[in-house]
Amino acid sequence: MEKRNYPALYLDADKASNNAQSKYLNLVRAEYALLFLAAVLGLQWSSSTYYDIGYALVFVLAATMLLIRSFKKPEQTWYRCRALAESVKTSTWRYMMRADPFLDAEYIQEPRAEFRNYLREILKANREVGDALASGSSAEDQVTHAMDEIRKKNIDQRKQYYKEHRIQEQRAWYNRRANDNKRAFKRWVLSTVSVYIVAILSVLIRIGQPSWGQQVPTDPLIVLAASLVGWIQIRKFSELASSYTLTAHEIGITFGRLDEVQTEDELSEFVNESELAFSREHTQWVARQHE
User: Fold this and answer.
1) How many whole angstroms separate alpha carbon 55 and alpha carbon 57?
2) What is the helix (H) or strand (E) element at residue 134, kind and residue range?
3) What is the C-alpha to C-alpha distance for residues 245 and 240, in angstroms, rounded to an integer?
4) pLDDT by residue (tens digit) across 29-46?
5) C-alpha–C-alpha distance, residues 73 and 71, integer Å
6) How many other CB atoms are there within 10 angstroms of residue 112's CB atom?
7) In angstroms, rounded to a whole number, what is the distance separating the alpha carbons of residues 67 and 61?
8) Which residue pairs from 64-68 have beta carbons closer than 8 angstroms and sit at least 24 positions apart in sequence?
9) Mapping DSSP to helix (H, G, I), strand (E, B) and coil, where does residue 216 land?
10) Is the per-residue pLDDT at 155 higher than 80?
11) For residue range 195-235, what is the model confidence (pLDDT) as tens digits?
12) CB atoms within 10 A of CB 276
């Protein structure tokens, strides 16, 4: 289903999460780049006073990046907004599939009201990200026309829609993200090992040619290697690849059960189990922030 057909709260939370993620990662990149620059400048390429002032300014900027990350905590906004967005998304699919707690009713107003109340409770539980959610999407519908149109379909049509637009899309997303993280992990590890090799060669050259000491610096390489290791730890490439792979397999195991669903109660149970699997990864990310 197209993103624009989801509730306004999802659109805002999704946008806020993406913005906070970009801000956090950009701050980390800037800090690492400044530390590397400081290591290069520490080789004393000049004895000018302006050079030393610029050198000190680099440390001031690096410290500023650290303070912004420490006090603003954009990574917490990132995870919380992502968890909020996924909570709204999974509730939306429950609503469209007439799954518990948005079961069929004589009048559509009843499940609509239940859905709005559910969103209200989710929003109350996430008031700490209220500032990050301020955007134009708040004026959009919370129960969209597309959501009601899908809900009107009969059980076979809803089963097919859920299979194509939720299960298969989620399975493909998790597989794609698992492969992306595996490749990224290998790429960054190889880059780090390459820096280590260059550093080792630099040390060996300095041992063999003592007179080349200042011409074969190692400090910038040490900072660069430490930054690459830190980046790998922050992005958790290996951990995410494993987690996404397991979730993709879990979805694959669950996938076959959909054809056995015959009644509305069975569909409700199946959808709720599937949505629990889809949202587990984001729940774990939020939980890590409180450890």
Assistant:
1) 5
2) none
3) 8
4) 999 999 999 999 988 888
5) 6
6) 18
7) 10
8) 65/27, 65/30, 65/31, 65/34, 66/31, 68/27
9) coil
10) yes
11) 999 999 988 887 877 766 566 788 899 999 999 999 999 99
12) 12
The CB-based long-range contact list for 80-83 (8 Å cut-off, 24+ gap) reads: 80/126, 80/128, 80/129, 80/286, 80/289, 81/13, 81/14, 81/16, 81/17, 81/20, 81/129, 81/132, 81/133, 82/13, 82/14, 82/17, 82/21, 82/282, 82/285, 83/126, 83/282, 83/283, 83/285, 83/286
And the tokens for 39?
Answer: 């290591």
With beta carbons less than 8 A apart as the criterion, state whether 25 and 1 touch.
no
Structure tokens belonging to residue 264: 């509305």
Helix (H, G, I), strand (E, B) or coil at 46: coil
Residue 82 near residue 142, CB atoms below 8 Å: no
Per-residue model confidence (pLDDT) at position 30:
96
In the chain, the number of structural domains is 1
Owning domain of residue 181: 3-288
**DSSP assignment, residue 154?**
-
Residue 213, CB-side half-sphere exposure with 13 Å CA sphere: 3
Distance, in Å, from the CA atom of 65 to the CA atom of 68, rounded to the nearest integer, reads 5
- Contacting residues for 111 by C-beta, under 8 A, at least 6 apart: 95, 98, 102, 103, 104, 105, 151
pLDDT at residue 217, as a whole number: 80
Mean pLDDT of 119-140: 76
Share of the chain above pLDDT 90, in %: 63
Distance CA 234, CA 226 (A): 12
To which residue do tokens 């801000």 refer?
23
The answer to whether 39 and 222 are in contact (CB under 8 A) is yes
